[in-house]
Design brief:
Elements: H1 11-60, H2 71-76, E1 94-97, E2 103-107, E3 120-121, H3 126-134
Antiparallel strand pairs: 1-2, 2-3
Helix pairs in contact: 1-3
Length: 135
């Protein structure tokens, strides 16, 4: 009788495959991570402009006779969805009005602190957004 020996996978072969997969995953992370930050910055800018538009409409309809609208007032007036009041980093957008009662919406950015270089405002240029994404 002839016996066939079946050969299995050795531990060394498994370790080599796992190592190769880890190297590929690490390389993919290096490529994807900057795109994730860039998409968060773009999403924060888009959210800020949407909230600014809703706040301006709120003021024009006369509902904002008490001055600068708040996020809560916009949600109560059904100008914005209550689930979309936070920026991509989980912090609520801030609404500020200047002396002319012009609305400005701000996201505190990745560091979650106000008045820092990574803050995202509704009136930023694309070049400024790109700089923030590269920080």
């Amino acid at each position: 009788m002839s016996r066939r020996l079946s050969r299995g996978v050795t531990l060394v072969e498994v370790l080599i495959v796992v190592t190769i997969m880890a190297i590929i995953a690490g390389g993919a992370t290096l490529v994807v991570w900057p795109k994730l930050k860039q998409s968060r910055v773009k999403s924060a800018y888009t959210g800020a402009t949407i909230i600014k538009s809703a706040a301006e409409q709120y003021q024009q309809l006369g509902a904002g006779s008490e001055g600068c609208p708040t996020i809560q007032a916009l949600v109560s007036a059904k100008q914005i969805d209550g689930n979309k009041t936070d920026d991509p980093w989980g912090q609520p957008y801030k609404i500020r009005c200047d002396e002319n009662n012009d609305v400005h919406v701000i996201s505190s950015g990745d560091d979650r602190k106000e008045n820092t270089p990574d803050d995202i405002r509704d009136d930023m240029k694309q070049s400024d957004l790109n700089k923030i994404a590269e920080m």
